[in-house]
Design a protein that fits this description.
Elements: H1 4-9, H2 44-67, E1 72-75, E2 80-83, E3 86-97, E4 102-105, H3 115-131, H4 134-137, E5 140-142, H5 149-159, E6 164-170, E7 173-179, H6 192-205, H7 210-221, E8 225-227, E9 232-237, E10 240-249, E11 252-259
Length: about 270
């Protein structure tokens, strides 16, 4: 897996546009650990459950505002990811091989990348050592439905709130990137209809701890909420009350019902 980056990502030097980093801690840039639910830092499922909602909200806005209908280009030598004429500072997180079915962290890749391109992956390695999280410290390992290039990159994007992720496909695999300098609108809060749809989509697509997932999503979106016992959460979405019911099943709690009134699209 070492040599493909040189062949795929070479090219003329292109400097990123100077973009001021966001100065305010707004929706989807808040502290991942502030949602009021316990997050086990040594358990990847716990971190993914807290990360999934906020990151997928950013990714949906990103797709519409930055990516959609535009060609992309990656220059890893300069650490630049471009969409059309817009360029963003990018970090290489790692790569996933469709041939071996394995993930390789960027910090373990034998290709000669600069420190500025590896900085985020090295930060994650350091956090993994502090937290006892093996998924961040093992150089290469098989992927599965829970731990793979996309879910690892999700957690990376959540831990660095101003970051989004991008999957750059190549023959027989893909590189995964984190990048910053994004428009403020990418971090805008969602309305009730968007949030409910995203929540249901995520719990169908990813293995998650549903209580932690929903608490983190609501917190990051700026929605006031409170728990009513162990199995019910009430939140304010677009100023209207919504109730989320949970059912205890083998292995944890599952979201079983959402009660509320969604306004009709205008």
């Amino acid at each position: 897996m070492a040599g493909f980056f040189r062949a795929l990502f070479g090219g003329a030097e292109k400097k990123p546009e100077k973009k001021q980093p966001p100065q305010r801690l707004e929706s989807f840039r808040k502290d991942l650990f502030g949602c009021g639910q316990e997050i086990h830092r040594d358990q990847f499922l716990s971190l993914l459950s807290a990360s999934c909602g906020p990151v997928m909200a950013k990714q949906r806005s990103l797709a519409q505002l930055v990516v959609q209908g535009r060609n992309w280009n990656l220059d890893l030598g300069q650490g630049v990811l471009s969409f059309g004429e817009d360029a963003y500072p990018a970090q290489l997180l790692g790569s996933q091989s469709d041939v071996s079915g394995t993930w390789l962290w960027a910090w373990a890749n034998p290709s000669q990348f600069s420190q500025k391109v590896l900085a985020q992956s090295l930060e994650l390695k350091s956090l993994g050592e502090q937290w006892g999280l093996k998924e961040f410290t093992q150089a290469e390992f098989p992927v599965d439905d829970l731990v793979n290039g996309y879910t690892l990159s999700m957690v990376a994007a959540a831990l660095r709130g101003e970051s989004c992720l991008f999957r750059a496909p190549y023959a027989n695999g893909a590189a995964y990137l984190g990048f910053t300098g994004l428009p403020e609108q990418v971090f805008s809060p969602m309305g009730a209809q968007e949030l409910v749809k995203l929540a249901t989509d995520c719990i169908q697509q990813y293995p998650l701890e549903h209580k932690l997932f929903l608490s983190s999503l609501l917190y990051q979106n700026g929605c006031p909420f409170q728990w009513e016992g162990e199995d019910s959460l009430t939140a304010q979405l677009d100023g209207a009350p919504f109730t989320f019911q949970f059912q205890q099943v083998e292995g944890g709690w599952r979201l079983s019902e959402i009660k509320g009134t969604l306004s009709k699209p205008t």
